[in-house]
UniProtKB/TrEMBL annotation:
InterPro entries: VWF_A (IPR002035), vWFA_dom_sf (IPR036465). This is VWA domain-containing protein. It comes from the Bacteria. Keywords: Membrane, Transmembrane, Transmembrane helix.
Length: 300
């Protein structure tokens, strides 16, 4: 418990001392019995004074605004900013080596949709690339719209593979629209492309500055030295996909490594209890008035 206005208690106490001084005038009596008869020296004689004093003390306490503190906990999900970059080069229109009938893009879309269904509180953006990089949807919490955008992919492909442009576009989007301290970049590609040393250094530096967690999902990549050097330089994660079922496993692994984080905030919530002190003081004062005017009424 605390007193929110402690100084008022001191002011009220000083006023009480000033208004009701302790010194009393002396009145002489020739006999002690006569004094007892006049003063009514009985076990009940002091009760009115005690009641009045208790009531005044409670009023003084109410002036100081006593408050009762209670610890209150609140939980909230800490959202992430996630950019999903999918390869839409011509090679994604073909099935995996050793597999038949199902295109690599269809497997990637199915796994991406499962991943999106688990990110209810995160902000996710979608980009695609081939020779160029294209933003499909900016960072949003609307997973339904984003899922529809993923489902529509595949009507058009964009030539060969250029890994620099989608990475630059994603970093720019994080810089422009990112709000969360937790940033995740997921790049899925089945093609290796050279990345100049200057680009590798620039991309790695920007990722470290923004605190981005980088995941590369490589679809049957045989030689991906340049992009892997970027992954290693930012302490990212490379997930190798060789079989159809490994698409879903790769996204499930990312979901495991990037779980929804819960922040617990603790604060003290104070409840005013001065009304209780006021009511108790009024109760004592009421009893005092009743006794003074009935049972303990003094008749000259």
């Amino acid at each position: 418990m605390r007193l929110a206005s402690f100084y008022l208690l001191a002011v009220g106490f000083l006023f009480f001392l000033w208004r009701f001084p302790r010194a009393r005038q002396a009145v002489g009596f020739s006999r002690l019995a006569l004094w007892r008869a006049v003063s009514g020296s009985t076990p009940w004689a002091r009760l009115p004074g005690l009641l009045l004093g208790a009531g005044l003390l409670l009023f003084l306490l109410a002036l100081a605004r006593p408050q009762w503190g209670q610890v209150v906990e609140s939980e909230r999900l800490m959202a992430r900013d996630i950019i999903l970059v999918l390869d839409l080069s011509y090679s994604m229109d073909f099935p995996l080596l050793g597999a038949k009938d199902v295109k690599k893009l269809d497997l990637a879309k199915q796994a991406a949709l499962e991943f999106l269904s688990r990110r209810k509180k995160d902000r996710v953006a979608l980009m695609v690339f081939g020779d160029e990089a294209y933003g499909v949807w900016p960072l949003t919490t609307d997973m339904e719209i984003l899922s529809r955008a993923v489902s529509r992919l595949g009507d058009r492909y964009y030539g060969g593979t250029n890994l620099v442009k989608p990475l630059r576009e994603a970093l720019g989007h994080f810089q422009e629209m990112g709000r969360s301290r937790e940033k995740v970049l997921i790049l899925l590609s089945d093609g290796d492309a050279p990345i100049a040393e200057g680009d590798r250094v620039w991309i790695s530096q920007r990722m470290r500055e923004q605190g981005i967690h980088f995941y590369l999902l490589g679809v049957q990549l045989s030689n991906a030295g340049d992009i892997l050097s970027v992954v290693n330089s930012v302490q990212g994660r490379y997930l190798d996909i060789q079989k159809p079922e490994e698409f879903s496993r790769a996204f499930a692994e990312i979901a495991r490594l990037e779980p929804s984080r819960i922040a617990v905030a603790r604060r003290l919530k104070y409840r005013e209890i001065y009304p209780t002190a006021v009511l108790a003081g009024l109760g004592f004062f009421s009893v005092f008035l009743v006794l003074e005017n009935t049972v303990l009424l003094r008749v000259p």
